[in-house]
């Protein structure tokens, strides 16, 4: 299983909105520049995220986009599934109806079920707030440098 740029870039865009949560709308241009993404492509992703109720748009000269919920309430799974669809290593364990004549006797299906379960677990336990905390910790570590004692 491999995520497309939709999912990866969508998470990066939502991270930018989360880092500025509470500070007002953020322009697409600003997100695109900070993350090194195409503004045109970002427009397409944000439209899908807005339709799913994960972001809100604000019109006007100082308009832009905001998270529709607090960063702690939006999981990475919410974003990935909105942009990518069901996250499953194979069709037979996806969220969609899939008929396989060997479902009752398939020995390997348990592998795919367990893998999907673990993927869902990771995506659903990590929030945008977690990403922001991680980024701030990394920035702090970088700013602090190393301390040596003799």
UniProtKB/TrEMBL annotation:
GO cellular component: cytosol
Keyword hit for Nucleotide-binding: no
Coiled coil ranges: none
UniProt-listed PROSITE patterns: HTH_RRF2_1, HTH_RRF2_2
Entry keyword annotation includes DNA-binding: yes
Sorted UniProt keywords: DNA-binding
Entries under SUPFAM superfamilies matching the protein: Winged helix' DNA-binding domain (SSF46785)
Molecular function GO terms recorded: DNA binding; DNA-binding transcription factor activity
Protein name stated in the entry: Rrf2 family transcriptional regulator
């Amino acid at each position: 299983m491999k995520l497309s740029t939709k999912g990866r870039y969508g998470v990066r865009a939502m991270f930018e909105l989360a880092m500025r949560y509470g500070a007002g709308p953020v322009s697409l241009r600003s997100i695109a520049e900070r993350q090194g993404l195409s503004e045109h492509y970002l427009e397409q992703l944000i439209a899908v995220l807005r339709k799913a109720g994960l972001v809100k748009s604000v019109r006007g000269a100082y308009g832009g986009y905001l998270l529709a919920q607090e960063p702690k309430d939006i999981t990475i799974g919410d974003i990935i599934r909105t942009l990518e669809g069901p996250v499953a290593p194979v069709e037979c364990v996806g969220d969609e109806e899939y008929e396989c004549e060997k479902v009752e006797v398939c020995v390997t299906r348990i592998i795919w079920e367990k893998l999907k379960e673990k993927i869902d677990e990771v995506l659903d336990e990590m929030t945008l707030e977690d990403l922001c905390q991680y980024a701030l910790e990394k920035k702090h570590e970088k700013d602090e440098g190393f301390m040596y004692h003799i």
